[in-house]
Amino acid sequence: MTTTETDPATAAKATEVIRVDHFVRGRVVPGGAVNYRSRDLGVEFATPEIVLDELVTPRRELPPLLDVPIEEIIDFLVTCGERLVLEENVHLQRAADLIAATNPLPRRVIENLFRSARLRLTKRALWSSIETNFADPAALDGWVERTDHHGQHGALRAFPPRMIHMLAGNSPTGCISSIAQGALVKAVNVFKMPSSDPFTCVAMLRTMAEVDPDHPVVRSMSAVYWRGGDERIERTLYRPQFFDRIVAWGGGDAINNVIKYLGPGLQLVSFDPKTSISILGPETFTSDAVIDAVAEAAAVDVSVFNQEACLASRFIFVSGERSGIETFCARLQSRLGVDRETASETAHPLPGDLRDEIQMLQVLDDEVKVWGRPDGRGLVVLTSDPVEFHPSNKTVNVVHLDSIDQAVRFVNVATQTIGMYPPELKRAMRDRLASAGAQRVVRIGGAAKHVEGGPHDAMFPLQRFVHWMSDEDA
């Protein structure tokens, strides 16, 4: 593995242009040749020139991980996960320094995410993903014989794909899950890093290379940055002769940009933008103690990554007495401006156009009430119909309904997580919510908690990543 002697953080301070390195099949490529500006904060950074041939594994070459047992891959990932100790890992430390300049998340939250990153690479978590995605995990390691009810013989294999991953920018450690997924399906992987965090993926891959620079997992991974929509790069890479899947985490524009390249042999696995909500029954407003407890839990769900995460609640649909609901709104607002593990006391202030829209709502409708200010410390807007804008920066729209059943009509295929109270409401409504398009129901306060190995965005992604090959002797 090649390295560079210059400390990226020192270089950033000296030149005011942050150097972004690439990682290509076990080799660090020093940045500095091509300048870009980050989307969120407008910070200038410089990457290496991309050599497209280095990112493509010809189809005549078998994937490096093809004959590596899945047990060995998991053991390697677990060993790498044990190296993800922020206080001891210089690559994570440098990444944290640099992300703080390009990402809207506060430094403390970034460090908290890094400290919990190793939990994504435990043996139990990795095996849970395999066992819930594949009826017979042996198909990952070789050909699995089968016989149909006519006595015809065949065999199946989950063959390693060639994938481009468009990483999300709202969670610095999300790339670690993508790296693990790519390794578990034995893929050849190119990770397109986001402008808000072109650092963590390389930091993780450099950590893996220090464990074993020649390991097939390391040789199967590349992490680079280019500006989304750059046709010079995308018209070359986004071709079925080079890649099987484009795994896209991103906004609508990013997804639409990929779609134009799709065709036979090149498929999109999209984790497209989602909105999460909460649904609270009349039981919420029966006593001050319950109101306080639910307000705290709802604030936890709203505040995840300062409301940057897809699973962060933005709309809370409620039914009950108006006085109790207004008490809830006041207490919810007071709990939004609290320091948490994945949220800061103050998010970025609300944009001016949204401030104007909220003020106009109050002028036009006497029933609209607002608690808090648009200063990033928490704003609650109570209405009888959902607002038309997208609540952000710790802003939540509480919608008062005549009946909690009416909440179903506001659920669609873009609704990801629904936090609910009381918990029994999940069982009562989950079939109707699924029919409307929802993908996940949780207890209020549990949006960021997961049952290991579960689906994401209503699918088991590893199943969709692999190339299912059939050998039939009928």
UniProtKB/TrEMBL annotation:
Catalytic activity: a long-chain fatty aldehyde + NADP(+) + CoA = a long-chain fatty acyl-CoA + NADPH + H(+)
Keyword Amino-acid biosynthesis part of the UniProt annotation: no
InterPro entries on file: CoA_reduct_LuxC
Gene Ontology biological process: bioluminescence
Molecular function, one GO term: long-chain-fatty-acyl-CoA reductase activity
4Fe-4S among keywords: no
Main EC class the enzyme belongs to: oxidoreductase
Protein keywords: NADP, Oxidoreductase
Enzyme Commission designation: 1.2.1.50
Source organism superkingdom: Bacteria
Family: Belongs to the LuxC family.
Name of the protein this chain belongs to: Acyl-CoA reductase
Species of the source: Parafrankia irregularis
